[in-house]
From TrEMBL:
<dbReference type="GO" id="GO:1990351">
    <property type="term" value="C:transporter complex"/>
</dbReference>
<comment type="subunit">
    <text>Component of the lipopolysaccharide transport and assembly complex. Interacts with LptD.</text>
</comment>
<keyword id="KW-0449">Lipoprotein</keyword>
<comment type="similarity">
    <text>Belongs to the LptE lipoprotein family.</text>
</comment>
<dbReference type="InterPro" id="IPR007485">
    <property type="entry name" value="LPS_assembly_LptE"/>
</dbReference>
<protein>
    <recommendedName>
        <fullName>LPS-assembly lipoprotein LptE</fullName>
    </recommendedName>
</protein>
<keyword id="KW-0732">Signal</keyword>
<comment type="function">
    <text>Together with LptD, is involved in the assembly of lipopolysaccharide (LPS) at the surface of the outer membrane. Required for the proper assembly of LptD. Binds LPS and may serve as the LPS recognition site at the outer membrane.</text>
</comment>
<feature type="region of interest" description="Disordered">
    <location>
        <begin position="184"/>
        <end position="224"/>
    </location>
</feature>
<dbReference type="Pfam" id="PF04390">
    <property type="entry name" value="LptE"/>
</dbReference>
<dbReference type="GO" id="GO:0015920">
    <property type="term" value="P:lipopolysaccharide transport"/>
</dbReference>
<keyword id="KW-0998">Cell outer membrane</keyword>
<dbReference type="GO" id="GO:0009279">
    <property type="term" value="C:cell outer membrane"/>
</dbReference>
<keyword id="KW-0564">Palmitate</keyword>
<keyword id="KW-0472">Membrane</keyword>
<dbReference type="GO" id="GO:0001530">
    <property type="term" value="F:lipopolysaccharide binding"/>
</dbReference>
<dbReference type="GO" id="GO:0043165">
    <property type="term" value="P:Gram-negative-bacterium-type cell outer membrane assembly"/>
</dbReference>
Length: 224
């Protein structure tokens, strides 16, 4: 009587690992050829940067962390003269307004607005990135029976909007056109605004009517 032979070759874990590694390498090469870049490190074209955004504000601290995380070789300096690039905050406005009222005149929905205006120059004042305005708007339902909870929710939403704004700023700084402009800065116009200029204060507007003290949060102080 003949003994039956296995139809499949014996399992070889070493060969399987090699095959898996080959598949991963091939996939990476295909993605690279398609221009795919994993989110993470995006080196900036300069290694030192100065900003007039207050370091002791939540927004300023997040900007610094995000830039260093995206471009580890870039470091912040405290003096404009020591920096290859200068990130200048021109305005940072945060506001809250009534969006809709019910039949009794009570607020049903608020609109949260965030606006950040900035520019980027090199050490000689050449404008690498002209004044750029980024805006963010969120709508938030309101219930006056849970005032404290809604006030906390507004604060949380503003924090999320600020973090999203930080991400947008970093992506803008890491864009190819900024790198190209920095490399050809000598051909660009120069800006005469002092690098350490204090950002313009928010415009004076009437605050939205709310059941609590003014919900407006000073953007330069960051979210508390």
């Amino acid at each position: 009587m003949h003994s039956s032979k296995p139809l499949l070759p014996p399992f070889n874990p070493v060969s399987l690992r090699r095959l898996g590694g080959l598949v991963c390498v091939t996939l990476c090469l295909v993605l690279a050829a398609c221009g795919f870049k994993m989110k993470g490190v995006s080196p900036l074209p300069f290694t030192t940067i100065y900003t007039n955004i207050a370091e002791n504000s939540a927004f300023g601290a997040n900007i610094r962390r995000a830039i260093i995380a995206s471009s580890p070789q870039t470091r912040f300096v405290s003096e404009p003269a020591e920096a290859q690039a200068r990130l200048i905050e021109l305005a940072n406005n945060q506001s809250l307004r009534e969006l809709s009222l019910d039949a009794q005149g009570r607020v049903e929905e608020y609109e949260l607005n965030l606006e950040f205006i900035f520019q980027l120059t090199d050490a000689k004042g050449h404008v690498i990135l002209p004044p750029t305005t980024l805006r963010s708007t969120r709508e938030l339902p309101y219930d006056d029976s849970v005032v404290q909870a809604k006030q906390g929710e507004i604060t949380t939403v503003f924090q999320q909007m600020q973090q999203s704004m930080v991400d947008r700023v970093v992506r803008r700084l890491a864009s190819p056109d900024v790198a190209e402009a920095f490399e050809n800065a000598q051909s660009l116009a120069a800006d005469d605004t002092p690098a350490d200029a204090t950002p313009l204060p928010p415009p004076q507007t009437s605050p939205a009517r709310t059941p609590w003290a003014s919900p407006h949060v000073d953007p330069r102080a960051g979210m508390r």
